[in-house]
Amino acid sequence: MSFTIKKEGEIVVVDVEGQLIVGNRQELKQKVLDELERGEKKFLIDFAQTGYIDSSGLGVLVSLSKKIREQGGELRLANLNDDLKTLFELTKLDTLFQISDTRDRALASF
Amino acid sequence: MAASPTNDAGLRVSLEVEIPSDVAYIERVVELIRHPCAELAYNAHQLALNVPVALSEAISNAILRANNEDPGKRVFVRADVDALRLVVDVQDEGEPFDIDDNIRDATDPDNIEREDGRGLFLMRALMDRVERFDANGAPAGNVVRLILTRA
Q1: Which end of chain B has fewer surrounding CB within 10 Å, N or C?
Q2: What domains are there in chain A, each with its CATH number?
Q3: Minimal CA separation from B123 to chain A, in Å
């Protein structure tokens, strides 16, 4: 499991490879907060290569969403498979995040 | 290749795993239990969502909340899988707790922006049954039992 960060124009894109769970959530949080501290405002987290997400992983996404908003930025999510969509729907987090079906749509939505 | 339901009928897989109170072990335990479920043709959603997420929650609760990540305490996971259902017992060495205590509706608009409080909610949503009872014998602790009927 790992996180890859790259820039697409002015958008910071994070790919989550493998699971986003209690064992690695702090790594994701720190990587995004480092970018936020550097002055980045637009963030996209892409789950195309993600297995499963546990409640700690969801909690980190909620926390990052708040921190990015507090800095006047935006966080969008993309490429949730059917099971991840179910997870977001169960927890009603689909109402909190702006979620796009594809990376391109998410990038175009900023 | 997953076995056909007919061939699955008499098959039962039991396993026991013991880990230290370290969240780094959770993913491996989840895989150890997910594998026989796949062999017994549990459906794709159960393999990708119900089993891994609920298990991950139960084990992380045992490590973080019950055992407080105490390196001297262990977590014991026992799984029985057959063509009808998966039963997993996650045993900690912590103080007794009430699993129904402090239940918060994680989907309530007042709670939606909370970072925590979704673990038990997800276990209950993704499993058919979630129970807690006292561990028998030594070491003392809690057992959280997860039951999922194969679909």
Answers
A1: N
A2: 2-108 (3.30.750.24)
A3: 10
CATH assignment of the domain containing B129: 3.30.565.10
Instruction: Take residue B114 and report the two structure tokens written for it.
Output: 């909370």
Whether B82 is covered by a domain: the verdict is yes
- Give domain status of residue B4, yes or no: no
Phi, psi angle pair for A80, to nearest 5°:
-75, 125
Q: Is A92 in contact with B23 (Cβ distance < 8 A)? A: no
Structure token pair of residue B27: 């993913």
Q: What is the pLDDT of residues A6-47, one digit of tens each?
A: 999 999 999 999 999 999 999 999 999 999 999 999 999 999
Number of domains in chain B: 1
CA distances, A11 to each of A40, A43, B48 (Å): 8, 6, 30
Reported ipTM: the value is 0.94
Q: Minimal Cα–Cα distance from A79 to chain B, Å?
A: 16
**What pairs with residue A5 in β-bridges?**
A14
pLDDT of residue A2: 86
- Mean pLDDT in residue range A84-101: 97
**Residue A85 touches partner B, C-beta closer than 8 Å:** no
